[in-house]
């Protein structure tokens, strides 16, 4: 009888050890597999990445902050961005421009500060608006009464497609510069100078 009890205890112990080993192996395998799957999943590509551009023109620091949508095979102007409608000149939040010095744009003074940058694309001349309300989603809260400066520019067209919206601030003289917006086949550009 004693021998039978000892044999049963041994058999129970052996099976118990094997099950523990199997569970451990399965858990290690599960963790390893999950980790491998996570490592293999590519990160989702941001369709309109956040961008900024800046330059020093004399003592003025000019900064433009925007989200850069892509063309992705679409018709942009007159399609995705309708003609003769206010556009936040980027994606998501309104594009903004900041300056630490007073600027002259289109013979009007832009006091130092931070401003929303909006346009009205058209088949002909575009309208550019620099607006007091820089912190807004898209053009949801755009109000023409808050425009500090509003003027027309003539776009230039290219056969070459610029895939992602791009802004440039370029120095053209000791106290002068130009701001350029390029997207799809369209470029708009306008000069500015420091207010002395």
Q: How would you describe this structure to a colleague?
A:
- About 7% of the residues have low confidence.
- The chain has 196 residues and is α+β, with helices and mostly antiparallel strands.
- The strands form two sheets. The protein has a six-stranded antiparallel β-sheet with strand order 1-2-3-6-7-8, with no helix packed on it.
- Helices cover 20% and strands 43% of the residues.
- The chain folds into two domains: 41 residues; 145 residues, no CATH class.
- It has one helix and ten strands; from the N terminus they run H-E-E-E-E-E-E-E-E-E-E.
- It holds the Pfam family DUF2911.
- It comes from Tenacibaculum todarodis.
- This is DUF2911 domain-containing protein.
- InterPro entries: DUF2911.
